[in-house]
Amino acid sequence: MAEVVLSALTKSFGATKALSDVSMTIPDGSFVVLLGPTGAGKSTTLRLIAGLDKPDSGDVRIAGSSVVGDMPAQRDVAMVFQQYSLYPHMTVRDNLAFPLRSPILNRPEDEIRKRVAEVASVLRIAHKLDNKATQLSGGEMQRVSIGRALVRAPRIYLMDEPLSSLDAALRAELRIELKRIHQDLGATFLYVTHDQVEAMTMATHVGVLDHGRLVQFGTPREIYENPVSTYVATRLGQPRINFLPADLFGPARAGATQIGLRPEHILQGEGPEARVIRVEHLGDQTRLHLHLAGNDLITLSDPHTTLKPGDLLAIRPEDPLWFDASGNRLP
Amino acid sequence: MSESPIDSLARATPPALAGRIRGLSDRSIAWLFVSPTILLLLAINIFPLIWTIRLSFTNFAANKPNAEVKWVGLRNYERILTDPDIWQTMQATAHFLFWSLFFQVVIGFTLAWLINRKFRGNDFVTTLIVLPMMLSPAVVGNFWTFLYQPQIGLFNYAVEFLTGIPASSFSMLGSVALAPWAIVIVDTWMWTPFVMLICLAGLRSIPDYIYEAAEVDRASKWRQFWTMTIPMVLPFLMLAVLFRGIENFKMFDLVVQLTGGGPGDTTLLTSIELKREAFEKWRTGYSSAYAIILFVTVFGLASIYVKALNKVKER
């Protein structure tokens, strides 16, 4: 396990700039989640650390020494690819054992067998060990691909949306399992996801990327409560944060053009009246779609609410987030 | 409700035809479509085979159609299988088959592997390499006889240039020791591109991410080659060997053009010998038996091979 430091990483593919000037410290034993839409540079960051692509400029340091000149094998990292990347001509067992059979490690075969069996049972694929990799379902392939990383104890685990094609129950289970591995082994993770629950529950740090730039890096709470821009604010939160004209509820803060309201910023029962457009009962929560002076917003309500479409509901902001015209947060 | 287009089409079908077709089941209609092909296949493929089997038990000679045809039982087979000359042609064929396949696989795979690394002019080089395959075997045989000419042949001069052995001191096509290798060289020159193309298809079917994953899993280039590249190209390579093997077992034109089976009988391949027996000596019954033996051999070998191929593909 080791600390990974990225400094001023820049990478272009032809005319498109995939990463520009990204600096980030992934502390030893941390679980860093990268957020951002497709094309923000998340996968590129992982590939640069793994050594599958070379940066145009900048440095990657693992455990204090620069690895930019090193081959992937020399960097001792494990990676879970988005497209599984299983070895199609091998059985699940051979796929899992492949990293351990590396001549660099020189592990005895019975030790490899034991390790493979352990990982397979954690990932619930023990019964599939003798199947060919191509005879698995998408979810099983994804688990084998995670397993191939977990059999090793690399300096950092790089994971590119590893849980995306699993069903909800298995995803929740493996989320806890990965978190357990992180805590028990003190392993360092860099993890790409779109899933906000994964980001909030697993991460010790979250990095938000926008068009190849790292726009904010901090704990999940910081990212959620103190986003530096409207872009970062929309990365986390379900339902999404509402953006409304700054002067909708009275005088705006100087320079502000937008007001950002998460459900917890909306106090119900006081203030101007909004019309209820739709009520969504999701079980554990109920979403209210409201209409106020030409603006739509979504907030939460008590799961057993009796509100129905057409009703009027008074709302008032409380400690909202203020943003200027270009989307930057105002203090 | 208005009539659908299909209904109106059906109504437009002439009543007489409709009446004739109406009585047929789907199965009979299927047979109706397939039967011309089946008849043709029976006439030009199956019937000659059965007829050949029948002839192989007789002393029939096609140049004496009116002579009395005697039933000789298994005597033709017995004579062929105990004839040392026949075994000599079998040996010549086996030598040709083995070494031409060996060189074509080794060189073809190496070329494919080199071409597959992306470089400038890659497509142009591929086209160049593939050229020999597009020529007619008769043409290739003809100009290689010139290349092999001891006095004016380019091949002999190249050998002299590279090894110092005087060009006029050896004759590739005239020497008993060299002629079997001469035909292997020409066949390899002509058909290596075919093996290369199939291997290239195999190599291109391996996605880059497999190598990336192996790279991160700390496999060296050498280990990647043996654990990823070779197993994933193997089914393609085996298919190429199957095609080339069957083709070379039947090899005729190229070798007739080059050596005509000589010197002595050193390059007398089975198909050339068969043609001589059948259409020069006119021993139709005898050569029918010979043809059946060859057919069973190829068919047997190919079946075993295809089984092995399927096993590799399943792995």
Task: Explain what the structure shows.
The complex is a heterodimer of chains A (331) and B (315). Chain A is α+β, with helices and mostly antiparallel strands and 331 residues long. Chain A is 25% helix and 32% strand. Chain B has 2 domains: 51 residues, no CATH class; 239 residues, Orthogonal Bundle (MetI-like fold). In chain B, helix 6 packs across helix 9, helix 11 runs antiparallel to helix 14 and helix 13 packs antiparallel against helix 14. The relative contact order of chain B is 0.12. By secondary structure, chain B is mainly α. Chains A and B meet through strand 6 of A and helix 10 and helix 11 of B.
Helicity range of chain A:
25-40%
What would you call the shape of chain B?
A: flat
Q: Give the termini separation of chain A.
A: 38 Å
The largest sheet of chain A is:
6 strands, mixed
**Name of the CATH class of the largest domain in chain B:** Mainly Alpha
Q: Provide the CATH superfamily of the largest domain in chain A.
A: P-loop containing nucleotide triphosphate hydrolases
Span from first to last CA of chain B? 59 Å
- What's the helix-strand series of chain B? HHHHHHHHHHHHHH
